[in-house]
Amino acid sequence: DVDALDRLAVDAQRAYDALQDEAGLEDDAPEAYVDPLTCALMEDPVRLPSGHVVDSSTIKQHLLNEKTDPFSRSPLDEAELKPEPALKAEIARWLDDKRQQRRADQRAARAA
């Protein structure tokens, strides 16, 4: 039905716009917010026994292949990962600020 296709097109455009809004936000992220293994902005940082902080998804994927700390090569079990909730909240605030700034910039550009 044509209405369903129109709704699908609108939903697809919204999803595309949302992705565009997010694109590049992490480009100027502070180094402490970036996973040193993937160079991606961390969403759920955890501290390894070696002291390095990585995203939980990164280290869990690594542990599927090797049961070692990727920095020290020491044996590592998932239970040894220490969540970093303060850093996680800091990253979320920084990202929210960046999103708000981008929206404000876009509104200013449209108004000009």
Can you walk through the features of this model?
With 112 residues, this protein is mainly α. It has helices at 2-22, 56-65, 85-111, and strands at 45-47, 53-55, 82-83. It has a 3-stranded antiparallel sheet with strand order 2-1-3. The radius of gyration is 19 Å and the shape is elongated. The N and C termini lie far apart (40 Å).
Question: In angstroms, what separates the terminal alpha carbons?
Answer: 40 Å
List the total number of helices.
3
Poorly predicted runs: none
Q: Roughly what fraction of the amino acids lie in strands?
A: 5-15%
Annotation, overall tally of beta strands: 3
* Protein structure class: mainly alpha
Q: What proportion of the residues is helical, as a percent range?
A: 40-55%
Q: If you compute it from the alpha carbons, what radius of gyration comes out, rounded to the nearest whole angstrom?
A: 19 Å
Average residue-wise pLDDT: 90
**Rough outline:** elongated
Instruction: Work out the oligomeric state of the chains in this entry.
Output: single chain
Order of helices and strands: HEEHEH
Please list the strands of the largest sheet in the order they lie side by side: 2-1-3
> Biggest sheet, open or closed, and with what strands and sense?
3 strands, antiparallel
